[in-house]
């Protein structure tokens, strides 16, 4: 439903413990968390706290999770919207949604505003197929106006996620806007093992489960795919009347998830 475009300042109880791997990104975002927790420490010496930070990486790698964890760690409200939610809106609605979001956020500061899929509204002029360009530009312009309109001491930090930083309008990347970038990669073998550990926690595991084998069986998987595998495996085991989830269930779940990923790729590659 498009009725609610953003979660209104929800408190989140996700922390960095819920985010497996991504060690370098975590170090960088911890700095941002400290800006929110101790702004005076920085402004006292005349420093300007950054307003915007871009999380760049492929789908399902934990950008949203990391943004929520930042809010959880800083213990501030979390506001979010998705660029793609603005695609079908009527003229003028996108800009007014952005205005409302920032108005509410200012009242709740310190806080985090998270904009997922910012490329849907933040594409360079003339490169967007989905939305009429005027309307998209109105929305983008309003976002820029809002970002320029609050001081660095206002306690609002805006995070935006994209997997296409190359298509973004350069106006978004200027100093005082999204001038910091944090890159999030797909997990390597060790990273996948850590993500499996997180998502295996709630699962009734058979003693034959081997996390390093699972990590080795899932090259190219993003965190979201691994979460999906763990859930599928539990469902498969349950369907077969088991009381524990076994390695065989994970084999089947991995096959199923790979099948799903292949189907997705087929849809976007023509000629198949
Ligand atoms: P998209 O670009 O598609 O919005 P995203 O990068 O924002 O993706 P998330 O929505 O944060 O990805 O990830 C989806 C889910 O995948 C998370 O809720 C979590 O369950 C799991 N996940 C992804 N990465 C990790 C990780 N590093 N550690 C633990 N879980 C992860």
What does this structure look like?
- The structure is a single chain.
- With 272 residues, the chain is of the alpha/beta class.
- The chain contains ten helices and five strands.
- Helix 4 links the parallel strand 2 and strand 3.
- Helix 1 (23-37) packs parallel to helix 3.
- The two termini are 32 Å apart.
- The model is unreliable at 1-5 (pLDDT under 50).
Give me a quick take on this structure.
Acts as a processive, ATP-dependent zinc metallopeptidase for both cytoplasmic and membrane proteins. Plays a role in the quality control of integral membrane proteins. With 272 residues, this protein is α/β, with parallel strands linked by helices. It has helices at residues 23-37, 39-43, 63-74, 93-108, 119-122, 133-149, 189-200, 211-216, 223-239, 247-268; strands at residues 52-56, 78-82, 111-116, 156-162, 178-183.
Provide the fold topology.
Layout: H1 23-37, H2 39-43, E1 52-56, H3 63-74, E2 78-82, H4 93-108, E3 111-116, H5 119-122, H6 133-149, E4 156-162, E5 178-183, H7 189-200, H8 211-216, H9 223-239, H10 247-268
Parallel strand pairs: 1-4, 1-5, 2-3, 3-4
The structure holds adenosine-5'-triphosphate.
